[in-house]
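Format notes (please read before filing issues)

Several people have asked whether sequences and C-alpha cells are stored in separate files. They are not. Every record keeps both together, in the order shown below: the sequence lines, then the C-alpha cell lines. Line labels are part of the format and must not be stripped during preprocessing.
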Amino acid sequence: MRVGLTYNLKENASLADEHSAEWDLPETIDAIANALSREHEVIWVLADADAYEKLRHSRADIVFNVAEGKDGPNREAHLPAILEFLRIPYTGSDSLTLSLCLNKARTKEILFYHGIPTPDFQVFHASNEPLVLTDYPMLVKPLWEGSSIGIHDNVWVENEKELRSKMKGIIVQHHQPAIVEEALTGREFTVALLGNGTQLKVLPLVEVMLDALPHEAHPLYSYEAKWIWDTPEKPLDIFHCPAQVEDVLKGKIEGIAKAAFRALGCRDWCRIDVRLDREGNPSILEVNPLPGILPNPRQNSCFPKAARAAGMDYPEMVLSILGAALERCGMLESVGSSKRR
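Then the structure lines:
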C-alpha cells in the first residue's frame, strides 16, 4: 500500500524555539517513515505551499498525517481539508474536529453541552472587558495555540492586576483572544486513546508529577516545563506511567476522556489532558487530536510513553494508528489482499 506522510519540519532545531514548537524535528519524521516502511511504501509530503500538487500526483492510498499547519486558528485543518478535497483518506481527526479542538473555547463549549466536566472559562478580545470569573488562581492562555505555546509559568495569576497584565500581553504578542480559566490544583494526568467506536481503548495513564518542577515554579505544566527545563540531556522526572491511581478514579478519568473523544468527533488517536479539582474530581483541560510522538524516550513524549507502557514499541504504535484509520475506512481487506499478492 502507498502511504503518504504529511508533516512540518522545525525551522530551528532548538526545542526552545516557540514559533515552531508544534512542528517536528527530522528524527521524528524519519522514525515515523521507518515504522510505516516496514509494511508499506512511504511517500514523503512536506506540508508547504506545494503540498496540494504533491498530494494530487502522489497516488497515495492513505495518508499518515502529522502536519500541524503554519498560520491561523484553523492551521491544523489545512492539510486534512486538502486531503478531503482530493478524496484521499488519512489518519486522525477530520478538519472540523482539528479546528474545534485547537480553539480552547469551542472545545469547552462542546464539553459543557455534553455534561463533561471542564474548568469554567471566559474569552477576552480586549484586556479591559468585564471579568465574570471570581475564583483565583486563574490561568491566562492564547485561545488557539498548541504545544504549550504562550502558556508560560507566569500565566498562573493570583489577582486581577496580574490577570489584566498577562491578558494584555497575550492578546498583543499572539494576535488572538485570550482565554481565562479556573486553575485546578489537584493531580494532573494525560490520557492517550487509540482506536474508534467499540474498539476505542485507553492506554496506561500518564501522571504529570508537578512536584518535579523547579521549586519556584507554579504547579503548571508550562512551556518552560515542556521545552526548556526538560531536555534530552537532563530530563525531568516529571511523568509516571502507568500512573499510580486507584481503580475508581482511574475509571472516572478514562470515562470522561472517552466521552470527550466522542463528543468532539475524534478519530483513530488522541491525547487528552485531565486535572483534578480540590475535591479530587477530574476535569478535561485540553483535547489534542494531533499529539506529538517524539521517538526518543528521553524526550518525555506522552503518547509514545503510554504506548510503551502498553507493550508497544514505536513502530507498532505508528502502525496501530494507521491500522485504526484503515479499519475505519474499510481498507483493511485491501491491505491483506496486497500482502497476499
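For reference, the curators noted about this record: The mean pLDDT is 91. The chain is about 35% helix and 20% strand.
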